[in-house]
Amino acid sequence: MTPQPDEFGPAAVDMDESESEMAEMTGPARTCIVTRKVLDKGLMIRFVAGPSGDIVPDLKGDLPGRGFWVTADRKTLDEAVRKHIFTKVTKGKAKADAGLPDRVAALLERQVLDQLGLAKKSGHLVAGFDKVEIALRSGKVKLLLEASDGAAEGRGKLARLAGPGVEIWAPLPSEALAPALGRLHAVHVAVKPGGMADRLSVTLRRHAGFMPAADSAAVGSTGGTAVPGTL
Question: What's the pTM?
Answer without folding.
Answer: 0.82
